[in-house]
TrEMBL record, chains A, B, C, D:
Cross-referenced InterPro entries: Homeodomain-like_sf, HTH-type_TetR-like_transc_reg, HTH_TetR, NicS_C, Tet_transcr_reg_TetR-rel_C_sf
Molecular function, one GO term: DNA binding
Domain HTH tetR-type: 21-81
Gene3D superfamilies hit by this protein: Tetracycline Repressor, domain 2 (1.10.357.10)
Residue ranges for the DNA-binding region feature of this UniProt entry: 44-63
Protein name: TetR/AcrR family transcriptional regulator
Length: 219, 219, 219, 219
DNA sequence: AATGAATGAGTTTTCATTCAT
DNA sequence: TATGAATGAAAACTCATTCAT
């Protein structure tokens, strides 16, 4: 389980001292973990400082206030999640296979970087106040939509897919199908007795891919 | 103050005094609003008391501590969401139409009772600690799964649907497709510039229903 | 010496508990002492709480924040200084004697209630930000000006005083002559080696009265 | 932040580097402004450094600690105010005119170098702890008393003035009459609705001079 | 001579919770 | 059944001061 609010050992970094960049990075990482584990109101600057291996004043020096730390952490969540998306190569794959690969990639992403979903949930609970003000929307824009657009074009070209499918809307379907089981794993376990583990999630991804591929097939 | 105290609609109740049941109910409703609006850590007992029109000691008298208020509110969220689910009558509908109706019903549910999604998000952010301990799982179990089971049976019988589709897994698909666009409306707006409003959501529901119906069709 | 920043024993009050009015009054008194002794920035809410015999949260509950406590203390300083001014009866006195009495009264006031001068100094150092916003200007308006007006009228009538002397401007002369030696006693001692004690201050008041009476005499 | 950071005019110096004397002077000037604007407790070493255009460690290197910076600034206030006092030439003037000139000189001094009054207020609020320890009392001793002594002598000689007037006590009268309206300008505005501006102050000075000259006249 | 990096020890403020009636 | 009065414990944030270069 990834999002447990208990031990939070988050091993204290060993860092070279008097290294502003390093300190800032360490704070950001600790903040990301803290906010995703405890939410905005539940996060503690004390813990961020401790886990980053710096003093609290340094954090305030670099970021300003808790809200600003949170904003930086939210942006960092997007930046980190976007890293790696570029490496996903769908060009060589048969369009239906590309869809399946993308679904699995997305599910793995959510599964393996649970702080991303936590940050999204936290931010949406807060009404999106922070992301709305975030500079640099480019950095948080997913490249997956573009990859998807190209897959859809190839599929439409060779007759495997319907034409005129909006890649954003399709991506939202994919994200929806991967997001919910990961985000709501605790309530799913409690309410539906689902064994929400890696294998189960991968099976869900596979089934979702089936559904999506059928959905894309021409009538 | 850190958390923007939104409109604070929740107009203070006018209640007859010395009405234990009424007080308890009022507290529960105020708590549900409070926790869904601010999350577990962000919720304030003061505000709950004010919005419920009672004193803080009374809340502690009835519930014990903040955690217990939260648990009661979480349960209340499920109880309230389950209300009305029973009324949904799918028996008269052609199975594909029943699926479509169920998808719309779910989307409307999420859309119109936003505190439900907020509570689920909050609880999952907290690692499901509370729901795991919640007594009376029956009360939080959705009847939609049973309705779905019967629709699937009818569909399989008359050849419109594949057989051997697990109603829980199907329900999770439906929930996923409805949950994500509502839950993540703020980030969707910011990142994908989606106009997340009622009409848009209904269109998403319709499209999702198309996809699901195709998915259920026999190969 | 009155304004010493050292011991501040300010004996902790013995108060009956659960007495909101009493608590509020106690806080106000402690705040007045604290702010006048240490200035706005130097004042400590901790000390106010301790000297008032209440907890810090109670202070915040009643007043809001440090700035509001300060504003209340400033107003209280004026209210307390205005108490007693009403009792001063100049009507029976020969106008020159009335002037002399008023000067001594003012000097005594400043001398015996040193927190008043301290609060004025503090507020003026802060640019008057707080007094400018203070509601209830009536409460801080001195009745001495009115008393002075009547004395001046009597004096003009019977030929002892010039006519057309503005009572406000005269009062400012009186205040100036009493204020400076009290307010600046420490620097006067250090720079001019003045023995600024009660006797010396009373002699200054007497001399000032001489000067003022001459000033008022008709040419 | 509590204290409104006023315009922060004090434009950051451009200074040649490695200039010990220049740095020290810059720090002193910035400190004088800072302490007079915010008082002892309200002053911030950060701001002094920034406005002086140097780093904080340099300040500590040169002065020791905040208390020492304050002491230096207080002394500097006296030194700066004493500059120019020497140039005032009263010898050529008829004694009454000399008195009037001295009053105006004093009023202008206070009016045009407001940090002096602020520093005096600050120091007196602190109980004179610092000035009492200040070395070099000569530097802070006003020459005006000596000038006054000579004017009084001339006046007494030619019969315009009474004899046996103590120049220190007279100087305190003058200072009192000029100090109060400048020092308390904000409260005077708020409480008495006085239009405390340059013209008003000059009129007060003129009126004060009238009063003092009468006071000095032989019975 | 000078400073960027860093922090210990506060200080204001908040909040769940209890006391006394 | 109900609450006004009150607080311990902790949270965010600040600031004089020092370290390492």
């Amino acid at each position: 389980m990834n999002i447990k609010a208990k031990p939070a050992k988050a091993l204290q970094r060993v860092r070279k001292k008097r290294d502003a960049e390093g300190s800032k990075k360490a704070i950001l990482e600790a903040a990301l973990i803290e906010f995703s584990e405890f939410g905005h109101a539940g996060a503690r600057v004390d813990r961020i400082a401790k886990n980053a291996g710096v003093s609290k004043p340094l954090i305030y020096d670099y970021f300003g206030d808790k809200e600003a730390i949170y904003a930086a952490a939210l942006k960092e969540a997007y930046i980190q999640i976007r890293e790696g998306e570029g490496e996903l190569n769908l060009d060589q794959l048969n369009p239906p296979d590309a869809i399946r690969a993308l679904v699995h990639f997305t599910m793995d992403h959510f599964r393996l970087k649970p702080w991303f979903i936590s940050m999204l949930n936290t931010e949406n609970l807060r009404g999106g106040d922070t992301i709305r003000e975030l500079r640099g929307a480019d950095e948080i824009q997913s490249v997956l939509v573009e990859k998807l657009r190209s897959v859809l074009a190839r599929g439409a070209e060779n007759g495997q897919f319907r034409s005129r499918v909006d890649p954003v809307e399709l991506y939202i379907f994919i994200a929806s199908l991967c997001y919910f089981p990961v985000s709501n794993k605790h309530t799913l376990r409690a309410v539906f007795k689902c064994p929400v583990d890696d294998a189960w999630l991968e099976r869900r991804a596979d089934e979702a891919a089936d559904m999506l591929i059928r959905y894309l097939a021409p009538a």
